Amino acid sequence: MICDVVFDLPLHQSFAYAVPAGMELHPGQRVSAPLRGRPRIGIVIALRHGDEARLKSIERPVESVAILSNTAIELGHWAADESLSSWGSTLLALLPPPARGGGEVVAPPPERSPGSALPQELWVGAGREARLAEELRSEAGSALVIAPDKECAARWAGALDAARLDSGAPDAARRAAWFAAARGRARISVGTRSAVLTPLPPPATLVLLDEHDPAHKPPGAPRMHSRDLLMRRAATEGSRLLMLSATPSVESWWRADSGHAIQSFAGPEPWPEIITADTRGILRNHPLTLPLTRAIEDMTRSGRRAALIVTRRSAALICTECGALFRCPECAVPLYVSRPQKSLTCRLCVRVEPLPEHCPTCGGHRLFPFGWDAERVEASVKKRFPKLTVSRADPRAQVLIGTPTILRDLGHGTLGAVGVVTLDNLLTVPDFRGGERAFELLWAAAETVGRGGRVIIQTLHPEHYAIQAVRDQDLGTFYKQEIKLRAELWYPPFSRLCVISCKSRSQSEAEALISDCAQGLRGITGLTVYPPAPIGTGGARSARRQLVIKGPPELPRLIAPVLRQYLERRRRGGGVVEVEMDPVS
């Protein structure tokens, strides 16, 4: 008997091994097999009869039974093709860690017959999480809850008394939870993206928390969002899929608007006062406008806390006299400022312009990239409010300072005020998702404050439709405008993007490698292949180049034949090629 095994290697192929006499193996079973002079863990994907005389033999099974069903194996194959990852790397990344000793005695996963696909459900609005918890506790079927990170997974596992499958749990506990879910002994399981293949007995409910969160697409194979994996799994198995989000991704909202998912809205929740503060001529020397200063004073005086949200530094050029933003006339994204080269560059089409001396809109000369990091804001606020406790680390402080992630750990209505120090760092970032990220932040801030509090938005663009939608507590207003903009510029969900990056020790090697990739892709009909562009600074130890491709839904299948040769030979003359489909940041 011969078994075909895939490994965690950048190779689009399997390896054939002989099955020793007396050893029983099944597709979906982890095994240890010799490869390139040492034993490695792989997954059996097929068994067949044939001449095994010249083949190496399997050393041992890792578990006594298959850890994946045939349906899960095929789901992994689909994910590998969609993300241009290898089959073995994809499957092994979505499994619990193997035991170090001999084969564990466990039960096999249930083999499910394909069921009728159910409509996906998108839950938004107040009370969505409380409603989910109530349903999961009351229903009799199995459930898998996928969280964006292990901290969120820990909170939900505790709230639901569920088994944990994420990396925050011990390895042995994760393996036990995996097989307990397969046998139905653990009715509810909680994990991160690595748990999306966890076997469940029918009827099963799949849940995606914070569907919009980029953390659902971590580094490593497969470079794919948890949402896409769960959507494919639900459609294949006929499972129920619930996606929860205060601010769904534009792709999911558009899908629901198009009739491919059911939107479920709860009633409006208590909403704070939304205040915009003009930052023209202010943020150069101080991070607080008068409205934000008064909010901190008023809320701390009444015993309520405040939080200051610091977004990343803007790389775009802004006129602080009129608020004009320098954009690429071809791609409509903000131009990136390079101070060493004294130039403006488009990250997509690589258009380069010299740094202007004045604003073409108002003629002003106050042009500069600006930004306040958390440490600088903390020092300034401590100086302004010496009697208040101000901290970037202590959640009990009267004034919290941090990135948008600090809002995740704060419940609804727990703050008296939230101030966004510079929203323009998101609105002007060289990324077509900038408006969406700004909207997500403002909506999360409003939920954290609630009725009677204030959200102060410091910006040069108070008329932006993302701000207006949050002020009106109207999700539809934002998505209508954002979807219209993306349709006009042919951005997702109306197209798909792929980022190809090359890294090498020398500039010439990186340029040659990325040029080879670009040349092969330009002959494919229906693609927009933007010119290669450098990444990082000139003083880096390695040279990096990147190019962006825009294309139709079948983009992975169109570009795979060209890129596979570079991906399977990861190191080519000292260079490394990496591909990310559907980038989220």
Relevant terms:
single chain, 585 residues, alpha/beta, seven-stranded parallel β-sheet, six-stranded parallel β-sheet, 29% helix, globular
In short:
The protein is 29% helix and 22% strand. The chain contains 15 helices and 29 strands. The chain is globular.
SSE layout and pairings?
Layout: E1 2-7, E2 15-18, E3 30-35, E4 38-48, E5 60-61, H1 70-83, H2 87-93, E6 120-124, H3 128-138, E7 142-146, H4 150-160, E8 163-164, H5 171-183, E9 188-191, E10 204-208, H6 226-237, E11 240-244, H7 250-257, E12 261-265, E13 273-278, H8 290-301, E14 306-309, E15 318-319, E16 336-338, E17 343-345, E18 352-354, E19 367-368, H9 374-384, E20 390-391, E21 399-402, E22 417-420, H10 424-427, H11 434-449, E23 454-459, H12 465-471, H13 475-489, E24 496-504, H14 507-521, E25 528-529, E26 533-534, E27 543-551, H15 555-568, E28 571-572, E29 575-581
Parallel strand pairs: 6-11, 6-12, 7-9, 7-10, 8-9, 10-11, 13-23, 14-21, 14-22, 20-21, 22-23
Antiparallel strand pairs: 1-2, 1-4, 3-4, 3-5, 15-19, 16-17, 17-18, 24-27, 24-29, 25-27, 26-27, 28-29
Question: What do you see in this structure?
Answer:
This protein is of the alpha/beta class and 585 residues long. It contains 15 helices and 29 strands. The protein has a 7-stranded parallel β-sheet with strand order 8-9-7-10-11-6-12, with helices on both faces. A 6-stranded parallel β-sheet has the order 13-23-22-14-21-20, with helices on both faces. Strands 24, 25, 26, 27, 28 and 29 form a 6-stranded antiparallel β-sheet that branches. Strand 10, helix 6 and strand 11 form a beta-alpha-beta unit. Helix 11 runs parallel beside helix 12. The radius of gyration is 26 Å and the shape is globular. The two termini are 47 Å apart.
